[in-house]
From TrEMBL:
<feature type="domain" description="Inosine/uridine-preferring nucleoside hydrolase">
    <location>
        <begin position="11"/>
        <end position="330"/>
    </location>
</feature>
<dbReference type="InterPro" id="IPR001910">
    <property type="entry name" value="Inosine/uridine_hydrolase_dom"/>
</dbReference>
<dbReference type="GO" id="GO:0006152">
    <property type="term" value="P:purine nucleoside catabolic process"/>
</dbReference>
<dbReference type="InterPro" id="IPR036452">
    <property type="entry name" value="Ribo_hydro-like"/>
</dbReference>
<keyword id="KW-0326">Glycosidase</keyword>
<dbReference type="InterPro" id="IPR023186">
    <property type="entry name" value="IUNH"/>
</dbReference>
<keyword id="KW-0378">Hydrolase</keyword>
<dbReference type="Pfam" id="PF01156">
    <property type="entry name" value="IU_nuc_hydro"/>
</dbReference>
<dbReference type="GO" id="GO:0005829">
    <property type="term" value="C:cytosol"/>
</dbReference>
<protein>
    <submittedName>
        <fullName>Nucleoside hydrolase</fullName>
    </submittedName>
</protein>
<dbReference type="GO" id="GO:0008477">
    <property type="term" value="F:purine nucleosidase activity"/>
</dbReference>
Length: 349
């Protein structure tokens, strides 16, 4: 059992912002014990340049224009990029229209940033990966010692003995770039258990199911005067009138996400996968893991990106992952509402 604790943690985040990535990033900005070292942008939900624009705008909104944003790969390692505007919107942030940041991205490539940071601060940095693993795989190619140089790794990716959300067996992040995911898991084989990546996969991240009442609670915690109603009976695309800009933008993102999940018969809910992974990286979640050997399918056309976990050593291969098998959704939303509501209330708009 991994007990929540708020010890200082320094996080390098790679994301494909996306609505749940946005929530994860805002959550990290709300955590005083988290040093957000840098945010790098991988193509996935939208293309890499749009991911970077979203990251810059969100960091500005949270008063964190000090955090560098970089771009690396423009496409997966071996296959063309497929984005998902239907899930996260054409710009990856649902109906939100974020103020465009006046600052630019880092000149350094994301991979260079990762390698330099890990070499400069051995044993100090935690990697949080909420996107296809393209940039991280490239960083491992550039610095094979990354598993030893990093303090920890948290990955949102895969589905283990659980239905996929992109194909019947594959989860989005591992499906967008199966080769990168396979390289990343292979790179950790044989590491001591405490160095194996903590993997947040669909069987537990889909339990973190945000609902309209959580958005209403967030607005209350931010001190919004009027109730923030995101109602399934509203006309699609209705825009929030919340007085707090951070609440307003998050509400506009989540409304889009609620509508997407409903359109795909999952109910008027939003699986906020990446927020859960961020809470694991920040040390604020209670969860349990099981050690396994993970394989990512990279050749069978119908099974591309499918992740399989050997929990019993049947393959006789060294473990390469610690997969989350239990988490606490109610606690997760109490934490999210209090933390992000508090951040929103304290921002000077
Ligand atoms: O399958 C869910 C994952 O894919 C999340 O990281 C979401 O943002 C998308 O990238
Ligand atoms: Ca993501």
């Amino acid at each position: 059992m991994h007990e929540a604790r708020r010890e200082p943690v320094s996080i390098l985040m790679d994301c494909d912002t996306g609505i749940d990535d946005a929530l994860a990033l805002v959550y990290l900005c709300s955590q005083p014990h988290v040093e957000l070292v840098a945010v790098t942008s991988t193509p996935g939900n939208v293309d890499a340049e749009q991911v970077a624009r979203n990251n810059l705008a969100l960091l500005d909104l949270c008063g964190r224009s000090d955090v560098p944003v970089a771009v690396g790969a423009q496409a997966p390692l071996g296959i063309p990029l497929v984005t998902t505007p239907e899930t996260h919107g054409p710009q990856g942030i649902g109906y939100a229209e974020l103020p465009v940041s006046r600052r630019g991205i880092e000149r350094r490539d994301a991979v260079e940033l990762w390698v330099e940071a890990a070499r400069a601060r051995p044993g100090e940095l935690t990697a949080l990966l909420t996107a296809p693993l393209t940039n991280f795989a490239l960083a491992l190619r550039a610095e094979p010692r990354l598993p030893e140089l990093l303090r920890g790794v948290v990955i949102m990716g895969g589905a283990y003995y659980y239905q996929g959300n992109t194909t019947p067996t594959a989860e989005w992040n591992t499906h967008v770039d199966p080769e990168a995911a396979a390289e990343v898991f292979r790179a950790f084989a044989g590491q001591p258990e405490e160095r194996l990546p903590i993997v947040c996969a669909l069987e537990t991240t889909e339990r973190i199911e945000m609902r309209p009442e959580h958005v209403a609670a967030l607005a209350r915690a931010a001190g919004c005067a009027k109730p923030e109603l995101v109602d399934p009976d509203h006309a699609p695309g209705l825009r929030s009138q919340a007085s707090n800009p951070l609440v307003r933008h998050l509400s506009d993102m989540l409304r889009f996400y609620f509508e997407f999940h409903r359109d795909y018969d999952q109910g008027y809910v939003a699986h906020v996968h990446d927020y859960f992974a961020a809470s694991v990286a920040a040390g604020t979640a209670n969860f349990s893991t099981r050690t396994a050997t993970v394989h990512v399918e990279t050749s069978a056309p119908r099974l591309l990106g499918t992740t399989i976990a050997d929990y019993r050593g049947l393959w006789g291969e060294a473990p390469n992952a610690r997969i989350v098998w239990s988490n606490q959704p109610d606690e997760a939303f109490k934490e999210l509402v209090a933390a992000v509501g508090g951040l929103a209330a304290g921002l000077d708009f």
